[in-house]
Amino acid sequence: MRIAVLVVALTVGFSSLAARADDVTSAQGVIRAQEQAFVHDDATAAYSYAAPAIKQIFPAPDIFMSMVQNGYAPVYRHRSFEFGDSKTEGSSVAQRVHIVDANGEAWEALYTLEQQADGSYKITGCSLLKAGQAV
Fold first, then answer.
1. pTM of the model
2. How far apart are CA 54 and CA 39, in angstroms?
């Protein structure tokens, strides 16, 4: 009986870890797709990955793209864009991204994503700091 309980507990634990890994993979896919939309100057595609709350603030793809170009230049244009640590909590994922901008300077981005009613993830925010700066 104890072995059966242990097997069930381990199975549930591993299922939870697998689900979290799937959530992180999905979230990273959304971030990567938006990053590629920026590379191709595809405002409509980039905007499609933004959460509803972001779309309320920036009500059109061109307005959103202008904000990214002006306020998030390292995200918009960069030499490298690599995923770091991630954290899941409920239906949210926080994903760190290590960025080297077009000038060779290092940055740290923290993306936050929220799972939507349809199961997809949308980007709810991105905080950007020069590498080595305190939070």
1. 0.83
2. 20
